Amino acid sequence: MLCEKCKKNEATAYIKTNVNGDVHEYHLCPDCAAEMRNNGEFGKLFDWDSMSDFGSFGSLGSLFGMNNGFDLVSSLLSSPFGSFGAAPAIGSGKRCPVCGSDFNAIAKSGKAGCPNCYSEFRNRLAPTVKKIHGNTVHCGKHSKVTTEQSHENEIASLRNQLNEAIQSENYERAAELRDQIKAMEG
Amino acid sequence: MLDNDKKKWYQTEGKNADTVISTRLRFARNLNGYPFPHLMSDAQKKEVNEKVRDALIGGNSALRDSFIYLEADQLEPVQLAAMVERHLVSPEFASHPTGRALLLMKDESVSIMLNEEDHLRIQVMGSGLQLDELYDTADKIDTLLDETLHFAFDEELGYLTACPTNLGTGMRASVMLHLPALESSGTLRRIAASLDKVGATIRGSYGEGSQSSGAMYQISNQVTLGVSEKDTLSNLTQITNQLIALEKKARAKLLETEAYQDTIWRALGLMRSARVMSSGEFAELYSALRMGVAEGVVPELTLDRLSDVYAKVQPANIMEQYGKDMTPQQRDKKRAEILRNEL
Predict the structure, then answer these.
(1) Interchain contact, A133 vs B32, CB within 8 Å
(2) I need a surface site. Which of A49, B115, B148, B306 has the fewest CB within 10 A?
């Protein structure tokens, strides 16, 4: 996806703001994100300098679902991962095509966004899984569907949801689903 | 709402009933193509509720007449609280009912929570110790649902769950034990510390973060990935049997003392004559009396009779029966009255 602002570079930063219910989403390249930080509306909303103590967050982070600057800081402080250094720098913002979660959101909540997140962030989640369960793989009951089938099932399920969204004339949701299916068919 | 004439699972006496109150087993399962409940929209929650409902009781499902479907936000808070007391739903489920639903078997031995932490929490309960039997039931329901719903599964990680602590089998098996003698001798604290090493954990009766009351403890498996269901269950059975043996030994010692015999008979005396009784006082007295009945000190009562009385005097169940606007003081009076009549 191209940066919404310069329309030249690849957008690697995703920013969602919710200020008193006024929601905006931005897909930006690192340069435009930095510019926005310095001059744009984010500069007015947040006191970025006061956040420079937060390690890698000193550059624009992935501000998933935050409400305001204060919430952002407090939610980072309560991160189960404890160390902000562990958070990826901005720009590594790979997102799950099914639920839109990035790794930061998963780390922050301690929960995966959807089943597909486990494939999407397999390597980055592996240390956490290992810490909880030890270095091991599943043994025991298997679902009837194999992994490959389950990928196909997932796409099929999204297609069903797409049809339902079109029928109920929820075109915004339909567009989201279309993008998800496209990304998964990759 | 529920079929009140039908005998519920907790009104029957199970195996090892002297020390084991009940056994529960749950599978965490999820559907592909949807976010986990903490990220779902209301519309998506509704879709998942309906999909699971139709898979279990729609069309020509073998189980269509065995379950009822309840939407959580259609239930009164007091009904939800009563369901928590009967372990049909978690405290978490009851405190945020929006978008959540429940598929409940009519004898209340199976409850499937929808959109709690995972899309499905298939929960099976029974009295006494019966891990293998409950596994068979949960396994059959799981397999039946999987045919239509195709649960999210990964060859390496097993069943995919919102929280990585449940990956793998997604199975948590718990045995609710009554351990008054181990508690009073102080041995339990030492045992709790060593359980960790054998992959088990011990908690209060309502699970994570809850306190024990009346010497009721829940022991469950800790690890879900890399251990099969069969090995998990046999490990938990072994640990439970060891705890039962230790508790029985400690009870024999405790009952040799005249003071404890007196505690048991006083508990019965108070329950038969008190005019006001708080739920905290009841839990303590019940613990002593239950042990007395289990060990044959009080031959005139049976354990299933006691379990039935126990369920009847829980706060939300009293309110469900006698009025949802009751104050704690009114409940304490009603509790004492029920106990006088029942015992």
Answers:
(1) no
(2) A49
